[in-house]
Please model this.
Amino acid sequence: MGAEELADRGAGRQEGGSSQGRLKEQGPGEEAHLELGLGEVRLRLLDLDLHLVDPRELLADIADLHRAGCVAITDDGHPTATAMLMRRAFEYAGMFGMPVIEHCEDTTLKGDGVAHEGFHAAALGLRGIPGACEAMGVERGILMAELTNSHFHVAHMSARASIRGVRKAKEAGIKVSCEVAPHHFTLTDEALGTPIPYDTNTKMNPPLREVGDRDSMLAGIADGSIDCIATDHAPHHYDEKKVEFDRAPFGIVGLETAVSLSLDRLYHAGHVRMPRLIELLSVNPARILKVAGGTLSEGVPADITIIAPDMPVRVQASALKSKSKNTPFDGWELRGGVAATGVAACAACHGPNGAGIPAQYPRVAGQFADYTLAQLKAFAGEQRTNDPGKVMQSIAVRMTDKEMRAVAEYTSGLR
Model:
């Protein structure tokens, strides 16, 4: 019960009462005198400093996480505000050789922003998030990596100032790596207003940036500054996205469109060659996380994606396998896609919108060499190509000279 409530009760504020109480204010820890009409009550004001700790500002038991099989730690979704906590995270993760994957964002600068701070957000009356908001977090992470000699990985980078910092850090020998999502090397903040103004499927965090930022991501992919392509897959229910732009959650689905967007906008556009694209999507992620994968070497897990570089793909949100359909790429016509996926030695049909080559494949072995000649021919027929090199490239499999000649003979009749 508070002192003022005691005063009210003691002052006899019942019906017909006229006595008044008065509290002589004192500092914390001192005696306070409450003068009442019926006498005097002495109270002791307790100096209680109650500080409720946000669970997001507590460091997890990284040793336990490592023992359980975790290969990295992250603050994605809830950027770490406290520099000391971030330092401890770097130190602790560094003991186990685990990278710290950070969603770089200065929340005090972001404020209530919902879109990139620029012309298009201003024209639509949307609160902005400047690129510096991300770059400040990147610079802090770089400094922490240098201070602790630990590995810092920048998640879903989007701002030109961020990649400038990453380049300088790599030149200085600091352990830093980074990734970019397909929407940040394909779209710009112009999509906020066209073709559908206030389309909540263009709301993500980091936000779609301006042309200069998008072009910086493309340059970073081409020159090797960017290590990985990540989907930043963030599904949301239809009802969650079908609200005002300010109220809608950040994020889009990206898992089923990442490869086609990468082939169409990077490989076919001439920004990268196929080996570099495979490095971005597979080799480097496995290397950074120190997990088996990203190679067809004997003995590694047979998690394999078969790509068809020239396959025509039309993105149809309604046909996506994900339960969420929140994509800004609905209706896009793309060149190249996923023909099939093999996970842990079990091949499964994928293909654009669920339609692709037959899923009847043999057991997947160390170098994916268990395909029979008949199945290679079937694949070539499905792709309708007379170029055995493209067949080879598409299925990422080693064939003997005899098999290559047989496929060449078979595909030559497809014209």
